[in-house]
Amino acid sequence: MSVDVFELAHEHEQVVFANDPATGLQAIIAIHSTALGPALGGTRFYPYASTDAAIEDVLNLSRGMSYKAALAGLDLGGGKAVIIGDPGTLKTEALLRAYGRFVQSLNGRYYTACDVGTFSVDMDHIARECSFVTGRTVAHGGAGDSSVLTAFGVFQGMRAAAEQVWGEPTLAGRTVGVAGIGKVGRHLVRHLIEDGASVVVTDVHQPSIDSVREEFPPVQAVADTEALVASPLDVYAPCALGGALTDEVVEVLSARIVCGAANNQLAHPGVEKQLEDRGILYAPDYCVNSGGLIQVADELEGFSFERAEQRASGIFETTRSVFELAKADGVAPAIAADRLAERRIRDVGRLRGVWLS
């Protein structure tokens, strides 16, 4: 059964399908909202099982970017793009430049950046055809790898969650399970080790595990995510792809906190209530993982790592505000985060209706 784009994307402003047979490019760009400013979001290069799967992913991710930018206090809207295919075999300079021309055709309604399967050097190729690119290499005046501040922000959110549950904003003496130790997960492990936490990891890519354990010998590894969530944990940090928090995972999870870098962690509506019923505090993903967005957004005004890091440190207070509203309104933190984001989109976005020359 095929996806009805208009039914799934009823909130979205625009969905663009880009096709360049000569390079093999098949991409989808989704613009969820430009109420607060131009849409910004990364380009994911991934071998989706079907076009329908790619459509669903890009729509969910772009909506999440609108909420992420709003909650982070940025004057940006939400967008996302996916390129369908295996980046290991399909990615070429020609394909990236063809993709850049499609982004350019949107005339600034959408700014792209890195995501799963794309890197700063890829953004440099795209920028040869496109003016609306961020997350570029340092050599080209960019911010470089946005995973650095993504991990830093997740760690700040985790500290706020620890304060909520245990009374102190530290993970010292706690056991944290990290699922996915790629670009972001690896940096998160470093923050946790430096804070005095015990860390258990898993990843589908064995060399990533080997590399992390070589750098941080105290880190333990388990075979897979199923084994990790069944382990005795204080905190579970999903840092791979979305949909990590399923009914089955919530049922067996021993952790008191869920706080990770993955987007769209809740497998379906209602999971946030199940977490609450089990006494597990969920730090909403788009709240805590906005450090990378803050980093690449800062690049648009001339990048300063110190300024971006200072802004990302505010994720601690933002996460604390989400927990406070959740308690005051008697709702799950995921709902409280949505309310805060929607309030800003409504209140500030309304001003865009006042025409200025």
TrEMBL record:
Domain Glutamate/phenylalanine/leucine/valine/L-tryptophan dehydrogenase C-terminal as annotated: residue spans: 144-353
SMART domains (alphabetical): ELFV_dehydrog (SM00839)
GO molecular function: nucleotide binding; oxidoreductase activity, acting on the CH-NH2 group of donors, NAD or NADP as acceptor
One example of a Gene Ontology biological process annotation: amino acid metabolic process
Swiss-Prot/TrEMBL keywords: NAD, Nucleotide-binding, Oxidoreductase
PROSITE patterns xrefs: GLFV_DEHYDROGENASE
Protein name: Valine dehydrogenase
Originating organism: Nocardioides currus
